[in-house]
Write a structure and sequence with these properties.
The protein is of the alpha/beta class. Helix content is 43%, strand content 11%.
Length: 325
């Protein structure tokens, strides 16, 4: 029996026992690439009217390396195949820049084969203690722009469109408005590099609790900066976990900033685990995003609430639940 089919069989049986009717759906055949139906040899799970649901999700939820390693193994390529089999149509990988060029090319080829979308990777070296871009320092700006040029090559290898940019820390020795002007100038120059390639840097506001002293902390602030940069290559990464901690009011803030949002990331609060584990009503949040016709990626930048293979299956069941709006 091939490894992939063995994993499918094991998952089907385990998921049915774990989640019951949560992920059962009326029997239909789905020939969409990357959405193969799970099979099981357990006759008790085979009924004339139902099968395990593995059709694609309504939104492009993007798991990351390690999220399903207990069911798919440690090899990232095998994990991507597993993700596709469960109906996920995208991935993201913050540390793509750390991978060997050969591996990046393999990932890009596999995603193309499976019809999956590559989400974000981190484009610049993040400095968690110094206000490099906010300071206006020319050497810091040059280093940042060199990172952006390197990110163009990575994006080409993995067929990516979006890349995460964090403008690092505040620089408290100068007025906040001067800091903003310095950041905007750096981002304008980065946009000049990205625009000819059709690439988009997405600016990620991070919350004050987990990442104190960072320059970009709020979606409204990101909106102002994107308007100042005025480029299709500079948009907002709306991380729902960070936004909930920073200001809440999630859907109204999405609506206000919608024309500058190009990417979402997911994580419930507290805990930064999968939806249904915290206070955020993800079913309503996803319903709103879907209602706006969003065609981009929703990165699953969170941990698993439960350990091991069963925890991974529970995570999939949670996404089936909140995607069923």
């Amino acid at each position: 029996m091939k490894r992939r089919h063995f994993i499918q069989n094991t998952l089907a049986a385990s998921t049915a026992l774990l989640t019951g009717s949560t992920i059962l759906a009326a029997a239909t055949k789905d020939s969409t690439p990357g959405s193969n139906a799970l099979q099981t040899s357990n006759s008790k799970l085979q009924t004339p009217n139902f099968k395990l649901q593995t059709s694609n999700f309504k939104l492009k939820y993007a798991p990351h390396d390690g999220m399903f390693k207990h069911n798919a193994g440690d090899n990232f390529l095998d994990q991507i195949r597993f993700m596709a089999d469960q109906g996920f149509t995208a991935i993201e990988d913050n540390d793509m820049w750390k991978r060997e060029v050969n591996m990046q090319e393999k990932i890009g080829a596999l995603l193309s084969q499976l019809g999956m979308t590559m989400g974000v990777f981190v484009a610049n070296r993040i400095n968690w203690s110094e206000g490099t871009l906010a300071s206006g320092d020319k050497d810091a700006r040059a280093a940042f722009l060199q990172d952006i040029r390197g990110a163009v090559d990575i994006a080409r290898r993995v067929n990516a469109k979006w890349m995460t940019v964090v403008p690092n820390c505040v620089f408290p020795r100068i007025d906040p408005d001067y800091q903003t002007a310095n950041v905007v100038e750096s981002l304008r120059r980065a946009a000049d590099i990205l625009e000819p390639h059709g690439l988009v840097m997405v600016l990620e506001p991070l919350n004050f609790r987990d990442h104190p002293n960072l320059f970009l902390t709020d979606v409204a602030q990101g909106y102002l900066i994107c308007k100042a940069v005025d480029s299709p290559s500079c948009k907002i990464l709306y991380d729902i976990y960070h936004a909930q901690i920073q200001h809440g009011n999630l859907i109204p803030n999405m609506e206000a900033a919608w024309d500058e949002i190009a990417y979402f990331q997911i994580g419930d609060n507290p805990g930064r685990k999968e939806p249904t584990t915290g206070e955020i009503n993800y079913k309503n949040v996803f319903k709103y995003i879907h209602s706006r016709g969003f065609q981009g990626v929703c990165g699953m930048e969170h941990g698993n609430a439960k350990p091991g293979a069963d925890g991974e299956l529970a995570l999939i069941a949670a996404y089936r639940e909140v995607d069923g709006f």
